[in-house]
Amino acid sequence: MDFTSADDVENFQLEISNSAEEIDFMVNAHQTRYELKVSTWDGEFQSLVWPDEKKINITEPLGPNRIGELRVSASLPLTLVVRGPIQLDFSIYDSIDKEFLGVGGRMIEVDEEPYVRTTVTLGVHRLGSDNKEIKFFESVLGDVFHEVVLGEVDMSGSED
Known about the structure:
Number of strands: 9
Largest sheet: 7 strands, antiparallel
Structural class: mainly beta
Strand content: over 45%
Mean pLDDT: 83
Distance between the termini: 38 Å
Shape: rod-shaped
Low-confidence stretches: none
Radius of gyration: 22 Å
């Protein structure tokens, strides 16, 4: 997809960047010696991988407006690179006091590549000509859930 102006590319990436913070990370990790509590924070957008044009689906032509601009809704598959901070808290069960006692914790950051689909609204001028213009209006990121598989983790981080 070729946007006509650098501003449109920047606006699209900014909107995707803001939406990337909405991705919910579910962490799959386990610990054999201690109890493990995992907390995730909002991810930080790093980059995106543009799809091949053949994978872009025009889902709904919205029709031309009064200035001859054709509004279309397109579905784009994107691979985002998102850095997700994950807090690991370790505790041990005190059978005398019948409570868990914290024994340490640490923060890790993982770069994940969730595959998402976004719906984009575009304005197209002079479609089919050599000087066509494509303007970006808005995007809505779908499927904002991603699983992070850490496997076994320990307090020191020697196995991560």
